[in-house]
Structures are given as structure tokens and as C-alpha cells.
Design brief:
rod-shaped, transmembrane helix, Class III signal peptide, 88% helix, membrane, mainly alpha, 2 domains, transmembrane
Amino acid sequence: MEILKKLTKIYLKITRNESGQVGAEMILLIGGVIIIVLISAIMYKDYLINLSGEIGSVELNKLNQSINNLSIKFNSS
């Protein structure tokens, strides 16, 4: 009977110990987010590489020209 009480106490200690569970869940959550970000970056790799080329595109140059033309009109008056 004494052995059964000791085993019950040990079992209760093991099952009630949740101090490391929160840390493990956080690690899994952060790891999952990192994996999602990496997969997204791989899927959109071509878009991200071509993004730098679009910054110096013709449309941006036209917009800059339009802004410069407006500033000249305001400065001349």
C-alpha cells in the first residue's frame, strides 16, 4: 500500500509539472512563423528580385518629372 501511495505522488508530480510546456509551445509557435515567412519569401523570390528594377522604372521617372514641373510652376510665381 505504501508503494502505491509513492507511485501516485510521483505520477501526480509528473503530470502537474507544466513549467516547461509554455516555453516549448512558444518555441514551436515562433518556429512555425519563421517557416511561413521563409516559404513566402521563396514563393515570391522572383517578385522581390524584380522589385529593385521597378524602382528605377519609367513610371517613377515620369512621376518625378511631373513633380518637378509642378515645383517649377510654384517657384516661378
